[in-house]
Amino acid sequence: MTEPVPAALPRFPRDFVWGVSTSAAQIEGAVAEGGRGRSAWDVFAAEAGRIKDGSDPRVATDHYRRYPEDVALLKELGVGAYRFSVAWPRVVPDGSGAVSQAGLDFYDRLVDALLAAGVAPVPTLFHWDTPQALEEGGGWLVRETAEKFAAYADVVAERLGDRVERWITLNEPAELTLLGYGLGQHAPGRQLLFEALPAAHHQLLGHGLAVQALRARGAASIGIANSHGPTWTASASEADTAAADLYDLLLNRLFAEPVLLGRYPDEELAALLPGPVADDLKVIAQPLDWYGINYYQPTLVGAPGAEGAAAGDFGGIRLPPELPFAPQEIEGYPRTDFGWPVVPEALTELLVSFQERYGDRLPPVVITENGCSYEGIEDGERIAFLDGHLRALHQAMAAGVDVRGYFVWSLMDNFEWAEGYARRFGLVHVDYATLARTPKASFRWLRDALREQARG
Ligand code: GBH
């Protein structure tokens, strides 16, 4: 595919933060190095049939050893920031108690290498790799995990806090709740449906307690990375509207409103949480310096059984028929190799609706993930995807939404959870036989676009 030559991007503010994202379990490998404990994902992936291509995260992209090469790529790309995650079981192998100095040393080296390359480190403290020792005690279904998370956050902040300015507590507690505890398609493989909801509350509480721990260590700038997308209603019928509202409640509002407004959006739902939650909500709702949004696509939702309800595999996720809502295929847009519709204007819609819903309670927004899976190194489709989404982002800013940064998912191809290595989200191609990194066309396009922005 030849590289399209789109018109120059609109100009973003001078101090706008440009970055790329990764996560530990998806890139590090070296799962037994330096006394690292097992994570719930190590255990899940080792079970037959869990990962579609039969792979596991033991080697991944070997970033643990190859990080100097990856930092050099970041420098060449010209991003100002790099969002990575710290693996809890690498730092605290059993989740609480003894700390691994070797584990901390790795992140220490990474942070120093990033700073030397002129790239600001933006660590996420938790991106789904729960220490297996805690998972065996109930994982995020139990309250103690939130407290142990805050103790671990303190350990990381103590070590890195002199050089890290911007922190992220959690990545997408919604996906871990739904896919990990509700449907069992991600680690820890539990299928609790609505009984998974305590995992949402305890992650949110863990977020709040971690904010307190980070502030106590003097952290300058703290956010969360929640996944959000507009929910589109299949029809104006009462049944479809109710189903879409419930989907929006569970995937969007349940995770935004405790953080932004200090309350749960619905009383029936709150009754399923381990109560009383009033005091916890005060902890959860402490002010943030910015609110991170991972955006991928809108979701079209109707009542189950309705015409058009997607059967079987939906966007890589198998939704059981007993759920009270049914996502439907969105027609009329291009699709990524993963089958996800490409709808840049839904990013504008999402941001404007957040602004309308939350007004003054919404701190500045950072897009902490946005990206797509396509095969190939000459990835014109990814260029078109990024170009379209950056224009949509700029439009939301022109409409008055205060957006301070944008991070592409992902720096390089990596372990895409239950999909294994089959889905490639990287700006950099990884050959899994040799672990060689090759920048794709989209990498060069973004590098040039950032140079252009810097000239302005
Ligand atoms: C993120 O999750 C993760 O943070 C990251 O680790 C991951 O590698 C990356 O995205 C790419 O997947 O239309 O209802 O079927 C993404 C969350 C959840 C977004 C599923 C797309 C499709 C939902 N995704 N969603 S649906």
Biggest sheet, spatial arrangement of strands = 1-2-3-4-5-7-12-13
Number of helices: 15
Bound molecules: ligand GBH
**Low-pLDDT ranges:** none
Helix content: 25-40%
- The rounded distance between the terminal residues' Cα atoms is 30 Å
Shape: globular
The run of helices and strands is: EHHHEHHEHHEHHEEHHHEEEEEHEHEEEH
Number of strands: 15
Strand % is 5-15%
Structural class of the helix and strand makeup? alpha/beta
Q: In angstroms, what is the radius of gyration?
A: 21 Å
Average pLDDT confidence is 96
Largest β-sheet summary: 8 strands, parallel, barrel
Organism: Streptomyces platensis
Family: Belongs to the glycosyl hydrolase 1 family.
Protein name: Beta-glucosidase
Pfam family, one: Glyco_hydro_1
Protein model, in words:
It contains 15 helices and 15 strands. The chain is an alpha/beta fold. Strand 14 and strand 15 (436-439) form a beta hairpin. The two termini are 30 Å apart. Bound molecules: ligand GBH. Ligand GBH binds at residues 23, 171-172, 175, 227, 294, 296-297, 299, 314-315, 317, 327, 369, 409, 416, 425. Ligand GBH binds next to loops.
Nutshell version of this structure?
The protein has 456 residues and is of the alpha/beta class. It contains 15 helices and 15 strands.
